[in-house]
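User: Teach me something about this protein's shape.
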Amino acid sequence: MSNKVKTIIGILIIVAVIAAIVPTFLSNKIEYVNFEDAKKKTKTVEVKGKWVKDKESKFESNKFSFYMQDDFNTEMKVVYDGAKPNNFEVAEGVVVKGKVKDGVFIANDILTKCPSKYEAKEMNN
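Assistant: First, the predicted structure itself:
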């Protein structure tokens, strides 16, 4: 087999591997959206916002539910099949991953952003 044929076969193999990997990578990419956009998506998305403390939140039957406001001030009920994160009450922000179903965001993961202990504290002089 000539070097030219080996080179062509090598290039074809590389192209085939890239063609197989790229769609998998793109389908696993989760995008940040707001609740309005999340309603329109069929794939898993992430929504960033904050816990609405003056609305009901509860944990029962291994389900945690609460209300969240996204960065565009849209509120939605979030239901998570699991325990409330340990630091949920002190979190500065919340990110939920999941999908909207029947007007409720069904989360498969909850991430919290807590105040940093490394942030500079105001000094009283």
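Now, about its shape. Strands lie at 31-33, 45-51, 58-60, 63-70, 75-80, 93-101, 104-113. Residues 3-28 form the longest helix (26 residues). If you'd like, I can walk through any region in more detail.
User: That's plenty for now, thanks!
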